[in-house]
Design brief:
Blueprint (H helix, E strand, L loop, with lengths): L4 H15 L8 H8 L3 H13 L3 E4 L5 E4 L8 H7 L24 H16 L3 H14 L17
Antiparallel strand pairs: 1-2
Helix pairs in contact: 1-2, 1-3, 1-4, 1-6
Amino acid sequence: MRLTTKGRYAVTAMLDLALNARTGPVSLADISTRQEISLSYLEQLFARLRRNELVTSVRGPGGGYQLARASENIFVAQVIDAVNESVDATRCKGKGDCRQGHTCLTHHLWCQLSDQIHQFLSGISLAELVAKEENLRIEAGGQQTIREDKIQLSVV
């Protein structure tokens, strides 16, 4: 089981957006540069995030994207769901046809694990991730601003 690049990049980009929200709308080009994610890939992800009302776009000079609501009210699972990503531990993608059209012996175990992971990610807000990132930077004694650092995000 693994979270694909799509889910990881979506969460990373949203965290970057949340970290830089104080400065106004954030351009995808800036996120692309900071996080080393292709601009065209970010455009695809943000189209889905916008459709799911997690971000809004601001046109014109100084435009870009901003969170559609407070970071306390946006959760990692919502971001992953918005880009049509699933964190699924089953081999059959939850369909129950694991073994030649039949349910395997451990199907229900893996379904429960998938549910637990989704529930765990549903309890983590962008605000919590922002606070953790800022605390890590303070503990490290880094003098660089948030905009200069690349965010490292791991979902275990």
